[in-house]
Amino acid sequence: MDGVRLGLDISGRHRHARVFNLGNRKAPCAKTPAIILLDGDVNLPEHLAPFVCSRIDDGLPPSFSIIGRAPLSPPFEKNSPEWVFTQGHVYPPSLSDTDGKSTGSVTPVLSLSLQRMMHDSSLVDIEHPSLIVITDAIQLSIRSREFVEAMLTVRESFPSSLIWCPGLSGPDNIAFLTWLGVDLHDLSRTRQAHAAGALLTPNGPRKVNLELEGELTFELQINQWKHEISTIRNSINNFNLRELVEKRVLNYPKSVEQLRHHDYLIFERNMKSSARHVSKEITLQCNSPLIRTDPIIVEWSKKISRQYTPHESRQKLLILLPCSAKKPYRYSKSHKRFSQGIGDLLATEISITSPLGLVPRELEELWPASNYDIPVTGHWDAEEKSIVKETLSGILRRVSFELIINHSGFNLGSEFSGVKVIETTNENFSEEIQKAKEKLNLEIQTPKIKRQIEYQTISNWNYGNIDWLEGTKLIGKGPHWKIEKFGKPFARWNHINSSFSFSKASLPVLAETNTLPKAKIEPSENWNGDVFAPMIISFDDHIRVGDVVLLFTKDDDLIGSCIAQAPAWEWNNGCGRLAKIRHRL
Question: Which are the contacts of 541, defined by CB distance < 8 A and separation ≥ 6?
């Protein structure tokens, strides 16, 4: 039954990892990550192993059947689908530059190798496959950068396809493979470990403990899979899969190497999978040095170093402060004391922290500065010191501060990048602030003006311009100010997910000033819901999760706005809800 498509929906997203619901959307039969059974495997429940793959003949290149063990395809009346695919010739990755005319199935099962990705131009125009089999996954994984780059390309090119890397998975690396976007996994490595008398666990292979675990059984092996798959699904839904991945990659040096390559590629590709706005309930746990290569962390420190510029009224005095356990810092007891000492003085305040490096006061409410946690020892290692100094040097190359008051506890000496530094303690902090005020002839600002400057800085950070704020004013009382324009409510600051909430009246101005990303859609006549892939005509490629997106018709008429639930790469034939409607004009 070639061509039968799967019933797919998404119940969880975290960067490139997905929890796909398989089957009827109202009552899914299974979820990913899941197991695909091979010939000779033990029988497992359909919700854990929804597919079985069998070799059809002994010919070369080989052919296989993949059969659904539950009603996974519409109309969901019997077990389906039933697919047949040809693997095609598999060349080693070392011969990927050779055009060997490797053939293989295309749809609904795409047989894919690195060599075919590089030379088969017909893949650009194929119908979206239901399943992609990376036939040279084991050999390709040895070449770390090529492997993660191939997986990233496949995941983003085919957002609604399931991905399987035969022979590569185990409870010890399924978390990382899921992080890369792999959905289906087989028991090949578990069978090999079992034959060798080892238990393949999330921490790698080991001997069983006879006193606590008894004899080695395959049921014990399967329990390792069940536990790890449950942990992964939970981690995706709670947005903390990265924390689990950082634990699991320590099993093998090659996995650490691949994670670092993946981090670099994500940053290099402009963070297409990362969220810009998250709920305050989500915390980025920075417990491992591996977090320093996380693209979210790298993007922050690089952007501060290269782009952050304080308001022109605050470019005389720089005050460096320590971070705090409570986020945002301004709500902590220590920073409230600092604020009392500084008052409404025109100065730039920046907190020094790890692993972010520097967090300006104007941006401390933004992700990830507002939602991270790190163990504090008071000791700065060489890499942490380097990040702080390089980031601060980047700011000082753009801004000619006359004085730095350093109350952070981070040693900068008596001069840094040509600017005088005054080290302070709790005893003389207020005194030195007062001296600087008199020496530099610093003025003061009202809380309302300070908040307006913060909104401008945040707008520049998120949108690259402040044009939409022209002619606006703040009304109400702090800290819950409202932004008004033309005598009408225009926007407000959303403390729940640290973003601007725009009114319906603001949408034409936001469109005119090119402030927000845009998408063209073609909704049905009775459209009253959210945004799904079949409606999409075109979209900006920099949409990130949490972004407000302006919606236009194919004739360029503005019809509303939505909140992105999926990154831009999923808007190309993705499944599930891509965005939630916010306003309709």
Answer: 272, 568
> Token pair of 441, please?
């002839």
Dist CA 179 CA 232 (whole Å): 9
Helices 295-306 and 382-398, axial angle in degrees (round to 10): 30
Q: If you average pLDDT over residues 470-484, what whole number do you get? A: 89
Count Cβ neighbours within 10 Å for each residue of 229-249 and write b for 16 or more, e otherwise: bebbbebbeebbbbbbbbebb
Which SS3 state, helix, strand or coil, does residue 20 take? strand
Measured CA to CA, the distance from residue 570 to residue 574 in angstroms comes to: 5
pLDDT value, residue 476: 87
Which CATH fold topology does 284-439 show?
A: Rossmann fold (3.40.50)
Over residues 490-521, the pLDDT tens digits come to 999 988 888 999 999 999 999 999 999 999 99
Task: Indicate the pTM of the whole model.
Answer: 0.93
Kindly write down the DSSP assignment for every residue of 481-514, as one continuous string.
-EEEETTEEEEEEETTTTEEEEPGGGHHHHHHTT
What residue ranges do the domains of the chain occupy? 8-266, 284-439, 447-584
CATH architecture of 447-584: Roll (3.10)
Mean pLDDT of the chain: 92
Say whether 447-584 and 284-439 share the same fold.
Answer: no
**Cα–Cα dist 570/533, whole Å:** 8
Mean pLDDT computed over 239-260: 96
61 preceded by a cis bond (ω within 30 of 0): yes
Return the amino acid letter for 504: K
Which strand (E) or helix (H) includes residue 373? Answer: strand 372-373
CB neighbours of 539 closer than 8 A, spacing ≥ 6? 517, 518, 519, 520, 549, 568, 571
**55 has which bridge partners?**
64
Grade residue 2 by pLDDT with cuts at 50, 70 and 90: very low
- Judged against a pLDDT cut of 60, whether residue 3 lies above it is answered with no
